[in-house]
Amino acid sequence: MDDPFFFVVVGTVVLTAIVLMIGLGAFTRGGEFNRKYGNLLMRLRLLAQFIAVVLIALYVWIHGFGG
């Protein structure tokens, strides 16, 4: 827990979850906001998710695969 990189990883995961929730909310409500920003939110979520997965893998690799 003393590693600041851990908080960066957690931050990217939280950011991904936030973008996902906003996108799901827009999708379920529909309307103009979803038509205007739905595709952008999906792309943003994919980018945030990719960065989170890369950082998680890097964190595990740096810290020795849990062993």
Automatic annotation (TrEMBL):
Domain spans labelled HIG1: 1-67
Q: Which domain of life is it from?
A: Bacteria
Cite the entry's keywords alphabetically: Membrane, Transmembrane, Transmembrane helix
Transmembrane intervals: 6-28, 40-62
The cross-references to Pfam families, in alphabetical order and at most eight, read: HIG_1_N
Q: What is this protein called?
A: Hypoxia induced protein conserved region
